[in-house]
Amino acid sequence: MSCSLQDIKNLDNRGIPGGFIASEVFVKAAESQADAISLRPRSLFVAHPIQDRTNAELEALADAAFTDVYALVCSNPV
Asked: Which of 9, 58, 62, 76 counts the most CB atoms within 10 A of its CB?
């Protein structure tokens, strides 16, 4: 999580808004790292686990998150 947030901060410092998607088990880690680097990036957390899912389960997860992912990518940063 720390590299993702540092990359987002580097982009933000260059005027390029960023965000990330992670599974819900990483909420606390993301909040801690964001606090440590004084950053509140746009984020989306999806159901965990990811790696043990079938292709059909991953497709369903992606379909369910599509609207939120689209908003994360296409909206103006807060």
From this structure: 9
Q: Give the angle subtended at the CA of 73 by the CAs of 19 and 9, to the nearest 5°.
A: 25
Domain boundaries, the chain: 2-74
pLDDT band at 9 (very low <50, low <70, confident <90, very high): very high
Q: How far apart are CA 61 and CA 12, in angstroms?
A: 28
Tell me the mean pLDDT in the region 39-68: 94
Taking alpha carbons only, the member of 69, 24, 64 closest to residue 46 is 24
If one counts every other C-beta atom within 10 angstroms of the C-beta of residue 12, the result is: 15
Residue 18: both structure tokens together: 């960023």
Residue 21 in contact with residue 69, Cβ under 8 Å?
Answer: yes
